[in-house]
């Protein structure tokens, strides 16, 4: 199952680390380390085991970039339904002097994909479920290329060291959380398309493995070890690239699909970050093809005229304002956001303060 993931690294004074990820219930006791905090590092991740991978790297003297990459790799193992090396990501880096750079590791469509990629023979849009469980919805994974570029520019520890926590989790095993168990139950119909996933995550009766069960993934451990030892080429070239493309091609309806050349030609790209201000602070995020940096800047711009602190976090009005601001930002997202390699995205206009003031005036407090 190939999904998208987002991870960011922020280097500031003291080497602090900030990761953004989905919230995760307290299903596994957190292994947060006081020793890491003493080194001025903090990690937040979607799973405590991945969080601990970040702390482990900080304890070894790694920096924020190292820890962020180790977290992403660990999530590959413990959060297979959402994250990891089979998908894409974005990386935002800030120096203590305020300079911000960003890298795009978003998945790319096969070269064979065209405007009719999601259309049936009559030219109608295919139903979502008919697309999402096939190779039509899978792009060339970008996270390994992104990680390599980020590590080359900003990493401190060796490339190989960043993989060790994830390799241990895959080889020694990890416990199934309620979140993973529930996801497997919801996605049973999609998982049946992959015999290997069925054997790994489901019982002989077709039920998700029980909460608390230990899963080992030796094949994933071998893949991670190969990438750790040989670098990104172990993922994007040779047998791995050929097997990946062939598997996705076979799952793609029609006569077109992903090829080994698509995989081999993938490149992570440097992009311009989206930066704005909010109450005196400089706020930067990922630019296109992500819509996140634009949307966050817009929402903060909409809300700056309101005294949110005075209203308090439990105020119904605050939540009303937040939701209305999100509605405006997502309306602009649907109309203007796209891949800037192919579509002109009016970033400066979308975060222009005069424009945001006009949009904010549409909010009825």
Give a description of the structure.
- The protein has 365 residues and is mainly alpha-helical.
- The chain is 46% helix and 8% strand.
- The protein contains 18 helices and 7 strands.
- It has helices spanning 34-38, 48-59, 64-78, 128-132, 143-154, 159-172, 178-186, 188-191, 195-201, 218-230, 233-236, 238-250, 260-264, 292-303, 308-311, 316-336, 347-350, 353-360, and strands at residues 89-94, 100-105, 174-175, 214-215, 269-271, 274-278, 281-285.
- The strands form 3 sheets. The chain has a 3-stranded antiparallel beta sheet with strand order 1-2-5, covered by helices on one side. A two-stranded antiparallel ribbon has the order 3-4.
- A hairpin with a 2-residue loop joins strand 6 and strand 7.
- Helix 2 (48-59) runs antiparallel to helix 3 (64-78), helix 2 (48-59) packs antiparallel against helix 6 (159-172) and helix 6 packs antiparallel against helix 10 (218-230).
- The longest helix has 21 residues, at 316-336.
- The protein starts with 33 loop residues before the first helix and ends in a 5-residue tail after the last helix.
Helix and strand topology:
Blueprint: H1 34-38, H2 48-59, H3 64-78, E1 89-94, E2 100-105, H4 128-132, H5 143-154, H6 159-172, E3 174-175, H7 178-186, H8 188-191, H9 195-201, E4 214-215, H10 218-230, H11 233-236, H12 238-250, H13 260-264, E5 269-271, E6 274-278, E7 281-285, H14 292-303, H15 308-311, H16 316-336, H17 347-350, H18 353-360
Antiparallel strand pairs: 1-2, 2-5, 3-4, 6-7
């Amino acid at each position: 199952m190939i999904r998208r993931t987002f991870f960011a690294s922020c280097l500031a004074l003291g080497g602090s680390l900030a990761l953004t990820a989905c919230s995760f219930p307290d299903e596994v006791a957190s292994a947060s380390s006081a020793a890491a905090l003493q080194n001025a590092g903090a990690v937040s991740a979607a799973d405590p085991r991945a969080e601990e991978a970040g702390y482990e790297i900080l304890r070894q003297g790694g920096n924020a970039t190292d820890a962020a990459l180790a977290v992403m790799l660990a999530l590959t193992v413990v959060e297979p339904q959402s994250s990891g090396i089979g998908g894409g990501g974005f990386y935002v880096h800030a120096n203590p002097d305020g300079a911000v750079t960003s890298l795009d590791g978003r998945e790319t469509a096969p070269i064979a994909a065209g405007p009719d990629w999601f259309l049936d023979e009559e030219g109608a849009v295919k139903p979502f479920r008919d697309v999402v469980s096939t190779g039509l919805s899978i792009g060339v994974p970008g996270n390994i290329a992104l990680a390599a570029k980020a590590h080359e520019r900003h990493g401190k520890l060796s490339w190989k060291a960043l993989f060790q926590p994830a390799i241990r989790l895959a080889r020694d095993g990890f416990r199934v959380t309620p979140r993973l168990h529930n996801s497997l139950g919801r996605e049973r119909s999609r998982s049946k398309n992959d015999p290997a996933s069925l054997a790994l995550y489901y019982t002989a009766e077709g039920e998700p493995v029980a909460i608390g069960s230990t899963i080992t993934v030796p094949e994933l451990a071998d893949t991670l070890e190969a990438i750790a030892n040989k670098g990104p080429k172990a993922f994007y070239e040779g047998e791995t690239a050929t097997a990946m493309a062939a598997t996705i091609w076979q799952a793609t309806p029609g006569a077109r699909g992903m090829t080994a050349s698509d995989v081999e030609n993938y490149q992570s790209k440097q992009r311009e970050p989206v930066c704005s201000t909010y109450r005196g602070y400089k706020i930067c995020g990922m630019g296109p093809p992500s819509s996140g940096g634009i949307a966050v800047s817009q929402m903060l711009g909409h809300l700056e005229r309101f005294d949110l602190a005075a209203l308090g976090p439990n105020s119904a009005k605050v939540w009303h304002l937040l939701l209305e601001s999100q509605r405006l930002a997502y309306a602009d997202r649907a109309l203007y956001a796209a891949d800037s390699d192919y579509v002109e995205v009016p970033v400066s206009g979308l975060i222009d303060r005069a424009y945001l003031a006009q949009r904010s005036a549409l909010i009825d407090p």
